[in-house]
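User: My instructor asked us to take a sequence, write out its structure as tokens, and then describe one feature of it. I'm not sure where to start. Here is the sequence I was given:
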Amino acid sequence: MAEGGAGPLVLVVTGVSGSGKSTVASRLADRLGLPFVDGDDFHDAGSIAQMRAGHPLDDEARAPWLARIRAWIDRRIETGEGGVVACSALKRGYRRTLTDGRGAVRIVFLEGSRDLIGRRIAARRGHFMPAALLDSQFATLEPPGADETPIIVGIADGPDAIVAAVVDRLGRPLGDLGG
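Assistant: Let's start with the prediction itself. The structure tokens for your sequence are:
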């Protein structure tokens, strides 16, 4: 479904750890000429230590993190800049916190199998999220419903194909995405 419109657009690239959020969101931002930020950069040191130790965050621990990302999104809209943020946003409530029903904020959901994502996590180095937490990510995941008007893209084809699919589905001229 392509959606037209005018004004700034903020894309929230979501999915479980290892789905390629950061890579896709960064390339998407480059392609669209929008600022990019990684949601992981909004975690505080305590949350990172907790995840590094193999303990998933609960809703209470995630709330300040989501609020910081929401503030970044709000600034992008207020300044007319638009932007792209990579953020797991696994639950419907998390995505609602970020989008708040605003058409200027769109969810891009990266969808992939447990097996494929598990292989990707096992191959990556230097990330604080251990492979042991992948099962908890899938257990927490509430895939976006049609009422969230998500752009859902499979991850098997790689980042460039995903970016091309998202741009096509946006249905907006590239110059019409930011201020």
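For the description part of your assignment, you could build on this observation: The chain has a mean pLDDT of 86. Try explaining in your own words what that tells you about the chain.
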